[in-house]
């Protein structure tokens, strides 16, 4: 009975947001009420404990809100100043091949934007940018949403790991016991999770540029063929490696704030100059058919917005993000001495309402503060007038209000869910009870399932961060039950949560609206199930082998089968090119 009750908060989110198609604000509010009722009557969690957990959730949501606002504000300042137009113009001269353009703009520039802003913002920028380059609107949004995968675990400078995973696991006895037994602290364990996430992502994400190209030619090419997309495989794999290698190195040496941000920058610095020189460029050029032959569903309801060009140099256009990266690195590396200074002011809320629930934050270590400072400096650097700056603040304010409307109930819901172990009935918390049921059902096969749970959370809640908050402790509990290393299982949760962003309703709606597409959300989700399924199956297979070892098992079989399909498609595309 407890297992069935513990799954109701998750099912209620899915029912309200996916089945009834309610807004996140409305759906998460009613899911919060259901979770509170289950905690009070089913778990015998006192009203004071529920209130304390909810207050912690509100404070966490406000912290996330500062990050989102700062990241989006800087992006909007760059749009108002014309810097984004400068960056866009630099992409037009690289190659006339649409496959190459999609990979450079969506994969490299998009992953950088994800690391800098997150929260669905990259797809809303990349989609209109691709339309301006001549892509059908439906194709532009589809490709833009595919970038919401590998880099998402480190979106908005590491929020899904630093806030999502950390919030889920902190002050939990089963976690504290494991960490102390291994001679660690929570911060080092979260760092290790972030590092492991990058390794899983790097293995799977390597193929995302190739999938982008294949999806583009399959649904928008004259021949409707995956093979035309696979024909660009040398460049696609090169672009994949140019991002995932620095991405993984940064995660393992610097931490979860920087992998997507620096990985995207380094990837662009490597790929774009070589692409301009023709390195690994396809022999044939893929382009769309004439616009008059396009299907009606491909078009946007609004024209792509192209503002009059302003004299913003390439150096000035990129300078704000370079400053963000430098400031974040300087304040995160202890040896430089700045970290001790900015982290000296800590705001603590200990033993909230006498329940044992704690919360603390370090205001000047919140990445959003860095974004806001750099955004104000950028306004001066780019000579943005008061009207433009006011517009940037206004648009960013609307974004944060919409985000907070959902977060202000989503995060308290999660906090009640994971802190339900504070009760008068002697029960474990809902995630741990749910973990016991999952362990009994799936046993050692759980690594195959783990990423799908993360994706389900992101699909329903619209956020990798919220998915990690809700399921981090659950995934840790399953690992504890089946005797697996919790580090790997929690990492698989974060990987799946990132992949689920490709099809999460919030991102699809936001990206479609930015591109002027109305009523195409179902079409996009159905098509994006292809790369999402690929991501989850391969991540689960890699995780299974990572946990259970290399042997003749289902994980290895799935990896070999997937790679065989990819290589066969590459060979078929080469044979087709040779015959032509």
From TrEMBL:
Signal peptide: none
Keyword Chaperone: no
Function: Uptake of L-lactate across the membrane. Can also transport D-lactate and glycolate.
Keywords: Cell membrane, Membrane, Transmembrane, Transmembrane helix, Transport
Protein's name according to its UniProt entry: L-lactate permease
Family to which the UniProt record says this protein belongs: Belongs to the lactate permease family.
GO cellular component entries: plasma membrane
PANTHER family: GLYCOLATE PERMEASE GLCA-RELATED, L-LACTATE PERMEASE
Topological type in the membrane: Multi-pass membrane protein
Pfam family, one: Lactate_perm
Tagged with keyword Transmembrane: yes
Molecular function as annotated in GO: lactate transmembrane transporter activity; solute:proton symporter activity
Membrane-traversing stretches: 6-22, 29-52, 58-78, 99-119, 125-145, 152-169, 189-211, 232-252, 258-275, 318-341, 361-381, 401-422, 448-466, 528-546, 552-571
Location(s) in or outside the cell: Cell membrane
């Amino acid at each position: 009975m407890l297992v069935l009750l513990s799954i109701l908060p998750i099912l209620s989110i899915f029912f309200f947001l996916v089945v009834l198609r309610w807004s996140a604000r409305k759906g998460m509010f009613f899911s919060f009420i259901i979770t509170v009722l289950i905690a009070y009557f089913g778990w015998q969690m006192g009203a004071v404990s529920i209130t304390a957990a909810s207050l912690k959730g509100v404070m966490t949501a406000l912290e996330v809100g500062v990050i989102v606002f700062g990241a989006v504000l800087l992006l909007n300042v760059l749009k108002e100043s014309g810097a984004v137009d400068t960056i866009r113009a630099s992409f037009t001269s690289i190659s006339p091949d649409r496959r190459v353009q999609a990979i450079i703009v969506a994969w490299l520039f998009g992953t950088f934007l994800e690391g800098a802003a997150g929260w669905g913002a990259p797809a809303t920028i990349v989609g209109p940018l691709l339309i301006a380059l001549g892509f059908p609107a439906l194709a532009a949004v589809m490709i833009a949403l595919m970038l919401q995968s590998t880099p998402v675990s480190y979106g908005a400078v590491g929020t899904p790991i630093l806030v999502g995973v950390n919030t889920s696991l902190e002050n939990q006895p089963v976690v504290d016991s494991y960490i102390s037994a291994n001679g660690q602290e929570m911060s080092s364990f979260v760092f290790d999770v972030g590092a492991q996430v990058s390794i899983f992502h790097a293995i799977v994400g390597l193929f995302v540029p190739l999938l982008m190209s294949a999806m583009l030619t399959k649904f928008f090419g004259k021949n409707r063929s995956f093979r035309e997309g696979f024909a660009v495989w040398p460049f696609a794999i090169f672009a994949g490696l140019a991002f995932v290698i620095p991405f993984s190195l940064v995660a393992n040496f610097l931490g979860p704030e920087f992998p997507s941000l620096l990985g995207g920058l380094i990837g662009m610095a490597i790929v774009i100059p070589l692409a301009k020189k023709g390195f690994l460029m396809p022999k044939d050029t893929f382009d769309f058919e004439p616009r008059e032959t396009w299907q009606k569903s491909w078009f946007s309801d609004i024209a792509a917005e192209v503002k009059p060009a302003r004299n913003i140099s390439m150096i000035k256009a990129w300078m704000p993000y370079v400053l963000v990266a430098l400031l974040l690195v300087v304040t995160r590396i202890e040896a430089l001495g700045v970290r001790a200074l900015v982290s000296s002011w800590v705001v603590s809320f200990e033993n909230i309402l006498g329940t044992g629930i704690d919360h603390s934050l370090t205001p000047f270590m919140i990445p959003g503060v860095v974004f806001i400072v750099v955004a104000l400096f950028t306004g001066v650097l780019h000579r943005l007038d008061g009207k433009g700056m006011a517009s940037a603040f206004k648009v960013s304010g609307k974004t944060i209000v919409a985000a907070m409307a959902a977060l202000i109930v989503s995060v308290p819901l999660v906090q009640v869910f994971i802190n339900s172990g504070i009760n008068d009935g002697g029960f474990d918390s809902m995630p741990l009870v749910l973990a016991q049921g999952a362990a009994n059902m799936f046993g050692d096969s759980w690594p195959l399932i783990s990423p799908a749970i993360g994706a389900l959370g992101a699909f329903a809640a619209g956020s990798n961060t919220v998915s990690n908050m809700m399921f981090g402790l659950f995934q840790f509990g399953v690992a504890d039950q089946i005797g697996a290393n919790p580090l790997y299982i929690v990492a698989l949760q974060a990987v799946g949560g990132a992949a689920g962003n490709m099809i999460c309703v919030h991102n699809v709606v936001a990206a479609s609206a930015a591109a002027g597409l109305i009523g195409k959300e179902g079409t996009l989700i159905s098509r994006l199930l292809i790369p999402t399924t690929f991501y989850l199956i391969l991540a689960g297979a890699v995780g299974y082998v990572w946990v259970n070892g290399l042997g003749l098992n289902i994980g290895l079989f799935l990896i070999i089968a997937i790679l065989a399909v990819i290589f066969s498609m590459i060979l078929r595309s080469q044979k087709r090119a040779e015959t032509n």
